[in-house]
Write a structure and sequence with these properties.
The chain has about 130 residues and is mostly beta strands. It has one helix spanning about 1-20; strands at about 25-35, 45, 60, 70-75, 80-90, 90, 100-105, 110-115, 120-125.
Length: about 130
């Protein structure tokens, strides 16, 4: 009986270990159109992808001065989605509305997320 229990425990541990999903590299370019916001300063993003979650503002920049602020990040992960919001002068967009969601497939990906500040509609493009 003892050997039977030990075998069952071993089989359970093996099946749990095999359920761990493999991590894949995700490269994401976040773009937020700020052309309707004035004055513009300190544009960033906050979300589940910082450690600890939602504690750090990651700055976005507008290198070509077109009013669209951008940031490209790469991270290896097994998650299927992350929630986030764009931030202007330390203030979250979409006050009292749902967070933005970036969804992943179970494979390496390069994505572009395009949104307009304070407008919940956005495009997620897989490259």
């Amino acid at each position: 009986m003892k050997m039977y229990k030990t075998t069952l425990i071993c089989l359970a541990l093996i099946s749990l270990a095999s359920c761990v999903q493999k991590e894949h590299l995700k490269t994401v370019t976040f773009k937020v159109d700020m052309t309707h916001v004035e004055p513009i300063s300190q544009v960033g993003i906050k979300g589940e992808f910082t450690n600890p979650s939602w504690k750090e503002i990651i700055p976005l920049t507008d290198a070509n001065n077109d009013g669209v602020y951008e940031l490209t990040v790469s991270q290896t992960t097994a998650v299927s989605a992350v929630e986030f919001k764009f931030v202007h002068n330390g203030v979250y967009e979409l006050l009292n509305q749902k967070n933005r969601v970036l969804r992943f497939e179970y494979k390496p990906e390069t994505l572009v997320y395009e949104g307009v500040f304070n407008n919940p509609e956005a495009k997620q493009i897989t490259k």
